[in-house]
C-alpha cells in the first residue's frame, strides 16, 4: 500500500472507497480559501472546504484586513479623496514592489482587475466606509477605509509611478480588521452552500495519472479520502511556523523572533512540490517593527551600528524594517529630537539607548566613534534645511531638520525588539492560480493562492500593507474559478 | 509510454532493454565526477561516467585548482610555513563561512577528514610544491602551494577561529590550476578502469519503486538506457548558465553580468528534485570583482554611492565584492592614494571615476554631497593612525592611513565591471552525499556532490577560495563511495 505523505501524491488506484465526493476541494480557511470557495460555488461547483483548525481565520484572521487596490482611475474612496490612480501607475507600482522577484503577469492581471475585485468584495458584504485617513498609519485606529500603506510617495517608487494611497481597510473600529473580513467572507461562502469541514488536516493529495483528483484528509482520527472531480485548491498559507523549513529556505529570519502566523507550517508548499510543483523565492520574508508609532516617530532618522543612514525613512515601515534587518551588528537606532519623541509602545520593545543635548553627546553615549553619527546628522540637517536628501531622496515633510536638542536614540534590536515576520516564498503559479510544474506547465487539477505561493508580495524589501491580502483574495478567486472549471 | 524528463524519473518497468549496465553511473566530469569515479572504482565497482561535453573539465576546469584544506595540526605546507591549524579552528571557520546557510554536519565531517583528503589527492597524483606564498592573491602567479584564500585573518572570522592560510593550489605555473587538476584526476580515474563516455547528456533518472536504478542518456542522437546496479551520482554543477532558473531562484544575480560556468544549467538539480530531492539556499551566489589586482589595491577603502564604508576591506576579495553588490545605487568606489594606485587590469573593467588632491576634491568630482566621503575618510584615517578601525575592525597592515594625496576613486560598476559569479544553492545532501528527500530521508540509489548541491560554500557572503573544490572533491568521493556500496 502506498504511503500517505505530504511529499508524494497518493495513487488514486489505491483508493478503495471515497469517503466524500465533491467538485472542488479547498484546503485552508483563511481569506484565500474563503474567496476560492465563493468563486467556485458561484461557478456552479459543489465545494468542500477543509480547515485544520476549528474555525476560519488562518493568518488572514490575524491581519489588519487591508487590501491593496487601485488602478482604472481609482476606487470610490480614492476618487473622493482626490486621487486619480491610473492602471498604468498601479501596475508599475506593483512591479516595482516585486523587485527582482516580480511576477509580471500577476501584476498585470491584478492591476487590470483590482477595481472589479473591489466591487466583488463589496458584493460579498465587505463594508467600506469610503473615507480617506491622511498620515502614516500601520492600520487605522478608527473605522476609516483608505490609508497610505506602502512606499508610493517615497523614492524610488514615486519616480516609477504616480503616488496614490491604496490600502483599503474593511470598516471596523480600530486594529484587527482581518478577523471581521474573514467573517464576512465566511458568511458569503456559507450562504452559497459551501460545505465547511473544520478540524480536518490535509495529509496528501491524490493523483490519477498526471491529474490531481482529490485529497486525503485526517478527520476525527481517521484518514478520509476526498474525491475532487474538478480540482483541488491549496490555500494553506506560508511556512513561518515551521522552523525546519525556515532553516532550509529562509535562514535570515532567525535574526528576528516574532513570527506572525497561525498554523502556517508550509504543508501546502510541500503538497504542491510533491505533486511536481516548483517552490520559488523561498528566502523572501516580510518583517516590520512598529517604529512609526507614535506617528511622530516617522520623522526620525535611522542609523546602523556604524552611525550610517541606510534608507529614506519616508518609505513604508516594513521596507525600512526589512532594510534594518540587513544591517550588520544586530541593531539599528532611530534618532529623534525632543519635538518628535514620545515613549514607544510597550509591545514594540523599543528602548532608549542614548540621549544628549547634541548629536555628539548621543554618539558618545552610544559608544560610536567621534564624527560618525554626529556627521551623519550634520549632513542630514544641512540638506534637510534645503528641503532635500541627496543621499536617499527622502521627501518633506517627513524630511525635517532634527537640530534642536535634546535628542534621543531608540534602539531597535533584532533579537529583543518586536520584529514580526512572515514568509513570502512558495509555489510558482500562473496568473490564473494554476500550480506550475518545474518546466512551467500547469499541473492538471491543482490550484493554489495566498502565502503558499509566491505572488504579488514577492519581495520583502518591496512589501506594502495589503499586498498579501490582495494576493490572497484575488488569486484565491482565480484558484476557485479555475478549479470549478476543471 | 512514460515521458523522458529531467523532472520525473522514468519507470524501470518501461525500460524494454538496457543499453549499458554498470554498478555506478556518474553524471558530469568535473572534479566532482572524477573523484566520485575514482572512489567508486577503488571500492570495487564497475563505473561508467557520462559527460555531455567532449571531454572532462566542467566549471572545475575553469577554476584556479585551489582546495581549502586544514585542521589536524596543519598540512605539510601549513606546518612548514609555521601555521598550526587545529581541527577545532578549521571547523569553526568552515561553520562561520557557511553563515545562516551552514550545514554543520558537512563542516564537521570535512573538518575532521581534510588532511586525509589532502593525502588522497596527492595519492591520485596531484602535485604540491609545498611552499607558502604570503600576501593577498586571487591565485598564485607562480607555482606556489599555499595562500591565504579566505577571510581567516579578518573580523569577525579571526575572532571565531585562529587564522591560518588554507588555500592549497596544485603545483602549476600561474593562474588556471583547475584544468591540470582535472587532468590529474581524469588520469587517475582512467587508470582505475572507469569507463568514460563523452558527448553523453543525461535526460532522466530511472526509478524502480523507491530506488533510483539508472539513467537515460542521450548519445549519438539516441536515448540509451543505463542500468546502475548500485547507484547514480549527480555531479553536474550549478545553474549559473540557466537564466530561467536564475530568474526563479536567484534573481539578484541579474545585477551583475559575468557568469562563470561551463554548461552549468542546473540539470542535476532538476533531476534530483524530480526524484523527490530538496533544493535549498537557491538564492545564494558567489561573486567577485578582481579589485585586489594589483595587490596594492588591497590597501584601499570601499565606499558605496552614499560615501559610506560597508565592510572591513581586509576580508577575502569575494566577500567584499558580495557585500558591494548588496549596496544601493549600482556601484561602489575603491579609494586609493597615489602610493597604492596602479592602473587596474584591463579585464576587470574598473575605471577611474574621480581624482583629487584632497578627499574633498574626490568627493566633489564624484558628485557626492559635501562631508560624506570626505568625513568617512577623515574618520578612517584618524583611526588608522591609531591602528584601529572601530567601525568594521579592519586590521593592520591593510589598515593604513590614506591621507597623502593625490587620491583616486575607482568605480566598480555592477553592470559594466567584471563581476564573475556562480550559484551555490542546490540539492540537500547528507554528509555522506546521499540526496535527501523533502522529509530528510536518503533517496535510495541517488547521490550528489559539488555545485548541484548546497555544500561547504553555502553562503555567498562567507565564500573563500577553495571551498567549492574542497566540497566537490571530498563530497564527490563520498558520493562515489556511497554509490559503490549501494
Write structural notes for this entry.
- Chains A, B: Pfam families: FAD_binding_2.
- Chains A, B: GO terms for molecular function: oxidoreductase activity.
- Chains A, B: Residues 23-457 form the FAD-dependent oxidoreductase 2 FAD-binding domain.
- 2 copies of one chain form a homodimer.
- Chain A is α/β, with parallel strands linked by helices and 486 residues long.
- Chain A has helices at 31-42, 76-80, 87-98, 104-124, 157-160, 178-191, 243-249, 267-274, 317-326, 359-365, 373-385, 467-485; strands at 10-11, 20-27, 47-50, 66-68, 132-136, 146-148, 167-169, 195-197, 200-208, 211-219, 222-234, 258-259, 279-280, 285-288, 301-304, 331-337, 351-356, 407-413, 420-423, 426-427, 434-436, 442-448.
- In chain A, strands 1, 2, 3, 8, 9, 10, 11, 21 and 22 form a 9-stranded mixed sheet that branches. A 4-stranded mixed sheet of chain A has the order 4-7-6-5. In chain A, strands 15-16-18-17 form a 4-stranded antiparallel sheet.
- In chain A, helix 1 links the parallel strand 2 and strand 3.
- In chain A, helix 1 packs parallel to helix 12 (467-485).
- The interface between A and B is large, with 42 and 42 residues.
